[in-house]
Amino acid sequence: MLTNLTQREDDILNGQSNIDFTLRYYTDAAFTNEILTPTAYQNTNASETIYVQMENVNSLGECIAETSFDLEVLPLPIVTLVVNLRQCDDDTDGFSVFNLREVYAELSINHQNETITFHESLLEAESGNSPITNETVYTNETVSTDKVWARVESANGCHRTAEVNLIVSTTQIPLTFTREFFACDDAINGTNTDGISAFDFSSVTTEIEAIFPIGQQLVINYYRNQADALAEENPITDISNYRNMGYPNSQDIYIRVDSLLDNDCLGLGEHITLTVETVPVANPVSIAEQCDADGDGMYPFDTSTIESDLLQGQTNVTITYTDTMGNPLPSPLPNPFLTGTQDITVRVTNSLSLDPNGACFAETTLSFRVQAAAVANAIPDFIACDDDTDGVFSFDTSTVEATLLNGQTGMDVTYTDAMGNPLPSPLPNPFTTATQTITVRVTNQLSSACFDETTINFIVNEVPIANTIDDDFVCDDTSNDGEEFFTFSDYDSQILGSQSPTTFEFFYFDNSADAMDINAIPLADSYLVNSLSTIVHARIQNRNNPNCFARTSFQLGVNVLPIAATPTDFDVCDDDSNDGEELFSLGDKDIEVLDGLSPNDFDVKYYLSIDDAIQDENQISDDFTNTETPQTIYVRLENVISPDCYTTTQFDIYVREQPVLLMDALWPICEGETVDVIADAGYDHYSWSNGEMTQIITVDAPQRLTVRVWNDYGNLICETEKTITVTQSNIASIDTVDWTQSQNSITIEVTGNGDYEYSIDGIIYQDSNTFNNLLLDEYTVYVRDKLGCGTVSETVYLLGAPKFFTPNGDGNNDTWQIINGFVEPSNTIRIFDRYGKLLKQLSPTDIGWDGTFNGNMLPTNDYWFTVERQNGRTYTGHFTLKR
Q1: Measured distance CA(20)–CA(7) in Å, rounded
Q2: What residues pair up with 492 in beta bridges, in sequence order?
Q3: If we measure between CA atoms, which residue out of 183, 321, 171, 187 comes closest to residue 255?
Q4: CATH classification code of 472-559
Q5: Measured between alpha carbons, how far is residue 863 from residues 137, 752, 838 in Å?
Q6: CB 520 within 8 A of CB 514
Q7: CA–CA distance, 314 with 348 (Å, rounded to integer)
Q8: Which of 396, 386, 395 is nearest to 503 (CA)?
Q9: What's the CATH number of domain 804-881, 2.50.20, 2.40.50, 2.40.128, 2.60.40?
Q10: Are 164 and 100 in contact (CB under 8 A)?
Q11: Of the four listed, 67, 179, 298, 748, which is most buried by Cβ atoms within 10 Å?
Q12: Is the pTM of this model over 0.70?
């Protein structure tokens, strides 16, 4: 075939320009046989090697590179260009479903090694686009005939196309041809109610063949559904033993007839119907064996429920009965049905069956059994008290079986306990057991259905425990007449303890003999006691057996009820802490509470709440510190012999406020003025040593005074006193106002006997007489008497020394002088070098030092100075001369 070899040019150049290089193609490796027309090269072999020479167009044949590539021509698939696919019309509308894969073999004999797709246009087939996806169920798009294209592609990717004509033909099987088959539901799948059975419809094949001309070669297949028939997939392989799996109860079978010569569809349709008929259920009926009460061997059986038990709701069935000899019996059976022992066969038949070969049915057997009767005679109860509290007793059973059978023979006797467990037969003697009811069965040895049962009650009555009853001594009422009524039932729970009240009952007696006699009359529930102590005897007995009892005794008595007198309140003054708390001896109130009663017979106790006093809980000690004021103390007065005999009372604790004078001890007075001396407020009375009786008094001269204050609480006076001093104060005199170079501070020195405060602005005052970190400026200092006796002021200047100067003639910092020094013109200023040599003496009014000595400029260095102030103080410091 012709091939354009230059298609590989881009691969050979690999990005290099085709302008700069020339490519030549050869058929031999020696590059002697050049291919002159590489764009239309005709190969001579299916596989060849092409050799390429690449030359730089400017190299005059010197710059050459060589390479090669293989040329292989692959074969196209061999296909039949036009094939026909015929399908029977399933409903005479001209449309049907095609399985396009049926033409694989007609399209190509090598189709198993090729890929075949179908398309609705030739263009799509050539390009391989839009393949038909439903190849096995494709429906033609035009009536009766249609066309699709097949693309057959080899493993090497080479392909050819073919035309597939789709033809819809009319079935030749008459629509009136129908066959029905019936079968009973079988149990091969484990149940005969699943609607599945086996069918043999192989006879239909001969009938289908008779429809077509004799000798015509046919292919007849049967399918489970229309889709399989149209696609010719999954044919039924065994039509003589077909099971309708997946199609319970009823299924239509599709017949397809094709020509053996060209696979044309000759017939298609649902012509066979399979029906699975219901098999009735003959449910087993259990008929209880009956005992022959009169010995005639017959029994009238109740048959009223036999058919309902047999059918259990089934309908559309018939029932027939036959006896052991095969003779028919009435249906339904008579009720009652008088018979001896025999087996009857019952058949239940589907009454709606259409199967010409016979209806579906099921059978079961009714068994009637008549046996001799048995009698279990009653046994009296065995009753005993538990003699050792272990809950069991050994009973004498020697006469049990003789009483039970009363002369019967041929009987088996069995015993079971209350839990249904078997017991030995006959029962052991003695028979040791707890309380239980034993079931006894007497059974005819010939038939277990003939039996009778009775029960034997073995009763072991529990012997109670008489728990201790606490002695009960009650308090007399306020009459103290020595008599009180007691209720015996109040003590039942004590004698009972944890035992069951439904098992035991209780009685009370005034003597031991009656308590032992089960026939004695007990005391009434309400019982009058009129002594300090009397003995009562209590009996607890089993409600079911009064002979099972126990006894105990206890004492009852009436004690004196003490009457607690109400004591007086505690009323005291607090100490100076005024915390409202004081230590009290509560026992001091015992005598008042007893009010003449003997402390040997009665106890006095104290509590913080009435509930605690009543419950006798959280008693407080005699040494008691109150926690609030007033605080109520509750008192319990109780009988020593019987603490439950008590009464309560109460009294209050009052801790009164102790006056405390917090007023100043020192009261200053300005010269020539007066001062109001003020005592603490809030007290009932005031008394001063100068005779004044008010809270506030006016004093005009220094002196010592004592004031006494008190509160009157009726029967209690709480008081205190304090001595104070009135001292004279006057205005201050400013002696000196000093300054320091290091902190830029001002210190004010004053004289006077007042308490002073200081300010440098007349607004904000402070206790300290020194002000630090100030600017070098003029200030007015103020001194004020704190008691308001007057304020003095004085103007001062804060002097300062520059840290450096630069005498270079530029007009800035050319000389050194004390700042603000002019305000003290009498000061003397001296300047020294580091060795103490005097270099210059200045007056505060001089222009300052220019950094020379004897007309010579001194070098850059640190220099020292002294200032002798006109107040006599001397200050020193240093500064730097910079050149």
Answers
A1: 18
A2: none
A3: 171
A4: 2.60.40
A5: 122, 42, 10
A6: yes
A7: 10
A8: 386
A9: 2.60.40
A10: yes
A11: 748
A12: no
